[in-house]
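Everyone, carefully examine this protein record:
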Amino acid sequence: MRRPVRSAAQFIPPRLTIAALQKAAASCTGCNLYQRAMQTVFGEGSAHATIMLVGEQPGDQEDQAGHPFVGPAGKILDKALAEVGITRASVYVTNAVKHFKWEPQGKRRKHKKPSVSEIAACRPWLEAEVQVVNPRVVVCLGVTAAQSVFGKTVRLNDLRGQFWNTPIVSNVFVTIHPSALLRFPEAGQRDEEYRRFAEDLRQVERFLRA
């Protein structure tokens, strides 16, 4: 007899508001990641945002603070948004997976990529967020976010820099996750990749003004 597939679907509240979703997600046990994370890190921002930014999962600092994109990657994101004329207060920011997945590295908690089943288990939260916010554009930051939004395995370079329609929302734009910029060893390469990232966000801003 097959075991039932675990999912966040059973925790989705009947009345969909951001506040109701945040409260319900705090007790989500739809996959095993809740067991080692400090807390659920749900999406935040304007409930009427025209742009929804979707990352992979909370990092160590986000897990401790309980807020998305407050660590080093968040600082890069804030800088790039400001450069292209998008304020952080005007967007909704969330992650495909709401709990921090990690493995020990000495005294540190090292980020570990969520599995396909963990991404799928958490997808109902993202679907509910999209339904409530109803953004004009969803920006996937990295391949995990794109996998959640597209509902299948995808390759970042095949999707980056274009607008797509997906099963849960239209006008999806794919770029890299800002944390990827921290992993380039050479300063020149980091600067070049940051310019590409900022230009991707500028393309989104131009689309909204068109």
User: Anything to note?
Assistant: The beta strands are 44-45, 51-55, 92-95, 102-105, 108-111, 137-141, 163-164, 172-175. The longest helix spans residues 187-209. The chain has seven helices and eight strands. The two ends are 54 Å apart (CA to CA).
